[in-house]
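If your schedule permits, I should be very grateful for your opinion on a structural question. Thank you for your consideration; the sequence and its C-alpha coordinates are set out here:

===
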Amino acid sequence: MTSTTPYRSTSIDQRVLELFALVGDSFVGAKEALLHGDTSIATRLVDRERHIDELYGSLQREVSQRLMDDDHRPGELHYLVGIVRIIPELERSGDLAEHIARKAALDLTRDLKPRCRGIMEQMAELGASMWTQASVAFDIQDPAVATRLDQLDENLDDLHVSFMTEVASSTPPIAIAMELALVGRFLERFGDHAVNLARTTASLITQVDPYPKASSED
Protein backbone atom coordinates (compact mmCIF):
# COMPACT_ATOMS: atom_id res chain seq x y z
CA MET A 1 0.00 0.00 0.00
CA THR A 2 1.43 3.37 -1.02
CA SER A 3 1.38 6.29 1.39
CA THR A 4 -0.20 9.57 0.38
CA THR A 5 1.39 12.96 0.85
CA PRO A 6 -0.75 15.21 3.08
CA TYR A 7 -2.52 17.98 1.21
CA ARG A 8 -0.97 21.45 1.53
CA SER A 9 -1.68 24.84 -0.04
CA THR A 10 1.45 26.86 -0.77
CA SER A 11 -0.37 30.21 -0.76
CA ILE A 12 -2.03 29.54 2.60
CA ASP A 13 1.15 28.09 4.11
CA GLN A 14 3.13 31.18 3.12
CA ARG A 15 0.70 33.50 4.88
CA VAL A 16 0.58 31.29 7.96
CA LEU A 17 4.38 31.47 8.10
CA GLU A 18 4.19 35.25 7.71
CA LEU A 19 1.88 35.36 10.72
CA PHE A 20 4.29 33.15 12.66
CA ALA A 21 7.13 35.57 11.85
CA LEU A 22 5.14 38.71 12.67
CA VAL A 23 3.94 37.35 16.00
CA GLY A 24 7.37 35.99 16.90
CA ASP A 25 9.01 39.34 16.22
CA SER A 26 6.28 41.09 18.21
CA PHE A 27 6.87 38.80 21.18
CA VAL A 28 10.63 39.44 21.17
CA GLY A 29 9.96 43.17 20.91
CA ALA A 30 7.46 42.95 23.76
CA LYS A 31 10.07 41.23 25.91
CA GLU A 32 12.56 44.01 25.27
CA ALA A 33 9.94 46.69 25.92
CA LEU A 34 8.97 45.05 29.20
CA LEU A 35 12.48 44.42 30.52
CA HIS A 36 13.75 47.89 29.63
CA GLY A 37 10.58 49.94 30.09
CA ASP A 38 10.78 51.07 26.45
CA THR A 39 7.41 52.51 25.50
CA SER A 40 8.58 53.37 21.96
CA ILE A 41 8.78 49.65 21.17
CA ALA A 42 5.26 49.19 22.49
CA THR A 43 3.99 51.92 20.15
CA ARG A 44 5.54 50.23 17.11
CA LEU A 45 4.07 46.89 18.12
CA VAL A 46 0.55 48.34 18.18
CA ASP A 47 0.97 49.20 14.49
CA ARG A 48 2.27 45.70 13.77
CA GLU A 49 -0.72 44.21 15.57
CA ARG A 50 -3.00 45.95 13.06
CA HIS A 51 -1.12 44.22 10.24
CA ILE A 52 -1.46 40.88 12.02
CA ASP A 53 -5.20 41.41 12.39
CA GLU A 54 -5.58 42.31 8.70
CA LEU A 55 -3.61 39.27 7.55
CA TYR A 56 -5.53 37.04 9.96
CA GLY A 57 -8.86 38.36 8.65
CA SER A 58 -8.01 37.85 4.97
CA LEU A 59 -6.67 34.35 5.61
CA GLN A 60 -9.70 33.38 7.67
CA ARG A 61 -12.05 34.57 4.93
CA GLU A 62 -10.23 32.59 2.24
CA VAL A 63 -10.13 29.39 4.27
CA SER A 64 -13.82 29.73 5.19
CA GLN A 65 -14.71 30.20 1.52
CA ARG A 66 -12.71 27.16 0.48
CA LEU A 67 -14.39 25.08 3.14
CA MET A 68 -17.75 25.90 1.55
CA ASP A 69 -16.66 24.69 -1.90
CA ASP A 70 -18.41 21.59 -3.20
CA ASP A 71 -15.33 19.79 -4.47
CA HIS A 72 -12.22 19.11 -2.43
CA ARG A 73 -9.05 17.24 -3.23
CA PRO A 74 -8.09 14.25 -1.05
CA GLY A 75 -6.97 15.49 2.34
CA GLU A 76 -7.96 19.10 1.63
CA LEU A 77 -10.78 19.26 4.17
CA HIS A 78 -8.54 17.90 6.93
CA TYR A 79 -5.91 20.49 6.02
CA LEU A 80 -8.39 23.38 5.95
CA VAL A 81 -9.88 22.41 9.31
CA GLY A 82 -6.36 22.34 10.73
CA ILE A 83 -5.67 25.82 9.37
CA VAL A 84 -8.93 27.03 10.90
CA ARG A 85 -7.54 25.90 14.25
CA ILE A 86 -4.12 27.42 13.64
CA ILE A 87 -4.93 30.98 12.59
CA PRO A 88 -6.90 31.97 15.74
CA GLU A 89 -4.00 30.68 17.85
CA LEU A 90 -1.69 32.94 15.87
CA GLU A 91 -3.98 35.94 16.26
CA ARG A 92 -4.42 35.43 20.01
CA SER A 93 -0.65 35.05 20.40
CA GLY A 94 -0.22 38.41 18.70
CA ASP A 95 -2.66 39.89 21.18
CA LEU A 96 -0.60 38.46 24.04
CA ALA A 97 2.56 40.07 22.68
CA GLU A 98 0.76 43.41 22.50
CA HIS A 99 -0.54 43.02 26.07
CA ILE A 100 2.99 42.34 27.32
CA ALA A 101 4.38 45.33 25.44
CA ARG A 102 1.75 47.65 26.90
CA LYS A 103 2.96 46.74 30.40
CA ALA A 104 6.25 48.50 29.55
CA ALA A 105 4.61 51.82 30.35
CA LEU A 106 4.22 50.68 33.97
CA ASP A 107 7.99 50.15 34.36
CA LEU A 108 7.31 46.95 36.31
CA THR A 109 10.88 45.68 36.23
CA ARG A 110 12.52 48.77 37.71
CA ASP A 111 12.40 47.58 41.32
CA LEU A 112 12.34 43.84 40.71
CA LYS A 113 14.87 41.74 42.60
CA PRO A 114 17.52 40.27 40.28
CA ARG A 115 16.25 36.70 40.72
CA CYS A 116 12.67 37.66 39.90
CA ARG A 117 13.75 39.64 36.84
CA GLY A 118 15.98 36.76 35.78
CA ILE A 119 13.12 34.26 35.93
CA MET A 120 10.90 36.59 33.91
CA GLU A 121 13.61 36.84 31.26
CA GLN A 122 14.04 33.06 31.23
CA MET A 123 10.30 32.63 30.69
CA ALA A 124 10.33 35.08 27.79
CA GLU A 125 13.37 33.48 26.17
CA LEU A 126 11.90 29.99 26.50
CA GLY A 127 8.58 31.17 25.07
CA ALA A 128 10.38 32.75 22.09
CA SER A 129 12.35 29.54 21.51
CA MET A 130 9.18 27.44 21.64
CA TRP A 131 7.53 29.78 19.15
CA THR A 132 10.45 29.49 16.72
CA GLN A 133 10.33 25.71 16.96
CA ALA A 134 6.57 25.67 16.31
CA SER A 135 7.10 27.87 13.24
CA VAL A 136 9.85 25.63 11.89
CA ALA A 137 7.68 22.56 12.52
CA PHE A 138 4.94 24.06 10.35
CA ASP A 139 7.42 25.05 7.65
CA ILE A 140 9.16 21.68 7.31
CA GLN A 141 6.14 19.59 8.36
CA ASP A 142 7.83 17.98 11.37
CA PRO A 143 5.36 16.24 13.71
CA ALA A 144 8.05 15.38 16.27
CA VAL A 145 8.30 18.98 17.47
CA ALA A 146 4.98 18.70 19.30
CA THR A 147 6.45 16.18 21.75
CA ARG A 148 9.52 18.36 22.37
CA LEU A 149 7.36 21.40 23.03
CA ASP A 150 5.22 19.45 25.50
CA GLN A 151 8.40 18.85 27.49
CA LEU A 152 9.53 22.47 27.23
CA ASP A 153 6.09 23.63 28.31
CA GLU A 154 6.56 21.76 31.59
CA ASN A 155 9.78 23.74 32.10
CA LEU A 156 7.90 26.96 31.36
CA ASP A 157 5.20 26.01 33.86
CA ASP A 158 7.88 25.41 36.50
CA LEU A 159 9.42 28.82 35.79
CA HIS A 160 5.98 30.40 36.09
CA VAL A 161 5.52 28.87 39.54
CA SER A 162 8.98 30.09 40.58
CA PHE A 163 8.23 33.56 39.24
CA MET A 164 4.99 33.84 41.18
CA THR A 165 6.73 32.61 44.33
CA GLU A 166 9.39 35.28 43.94
CA VAL A 167 6.79 37.99 43.33
CA ALA A 168 4.92 36.98 46.48
CA SER A 169 8.06 36.82 48.62
CA SER A 170 9.27 40.26 47.50
CA THR A 171 5.99 41.81 48.76
CA PRO A 172 5.58 44.58 46.16
CA PRO A 173 2.57 46.90 46.33
CA ILE A 174 -0.64 45.04 45.55
CA ALA A 175 -1.19 46.86 42.24
CA ILE A 176 2.32 45.99 41.04
CA ALA A 177 1.98 42.38 42.20
CA MET A 178 -1.24 42.02 40.22
CA GLU A 179 0.37 43.44 37.08
CA LEU A 180 3.37 41.13 37.46
CA ALA A 181 1.02 38.18 37.89
CA LEU A 182 -0.65 39.12 34.61
CA VAL A 183 2.69 39.34 32.84
CA GLY A 184 3.67 35.92 34.16
CA ARG A 185 0.39 34.51 32.93
CA PHE A 186 0.81 36.11 29.50
CA LEU A 187 4.29 34.61 29.14
CA GLU A 188 3.05 31.18 30.21
CA ARG A 189 0.08 31.35 27.82
CA PHE A 190 2.35 32.26 24.90
CA GLY A 191 4.13 28.95 25.40
CA ASP A 192 0.78 27.16 25.53
CA HIS A 193 -0.12 28.62 22.14
CA ALA A 194 3.18 27.36 20.69
CA VAL A 195 2.36 23.87 21.98
CA ASN A 196 -1.14 23.96 20.49
CA LEU A 197 0.22 25.11 17.14
CA ALA A 198 2.80 22.31 17.08
CA ARG A 199 0.12 19.74 17.92
CA THR A 200 -2.16 20.93 15.14
CA THR A 201 0.78 21.00 12.73
CA ALA A 202 1.50 17.38 13.63
CA SER A 203 -2.13 16.50 12.89
CA LEU A 204 -1.81 17.97 9.38
CA ILE A 205 0.93 15.44 8.71
CA THR A 206 -0.21 12.39 10.66
CA GLN A 207 -3.94 12.89 9.96
CA VAL A 208 -4.58 12.22 13.66
CA ASP A 209 -6.82 14.54 15.69
CA PRO A 210 -4.57 16.58 18.04
CA TYR A 211 -7.41 16.85 20.56
CA PRO A 212 -9.09 13.44 20.77
CA LYS A 213 -12.19 13.16 22.89
CA ALA A 214 -11.54 11.84 26.38
CA SER A 215 -13.10 8.47 27.07
CA SER A 216 -16.05 8.63 29.42
CA GLU A 217 -15.84 6.96 32.79
CA ASP A 218 -18.63 5.80 35.04
In short: The two ends are 40 Å apart (CA to CA). The longest helix spans residues 174-206. Confidence is low (pLDDT under 50) at residues 214-218.
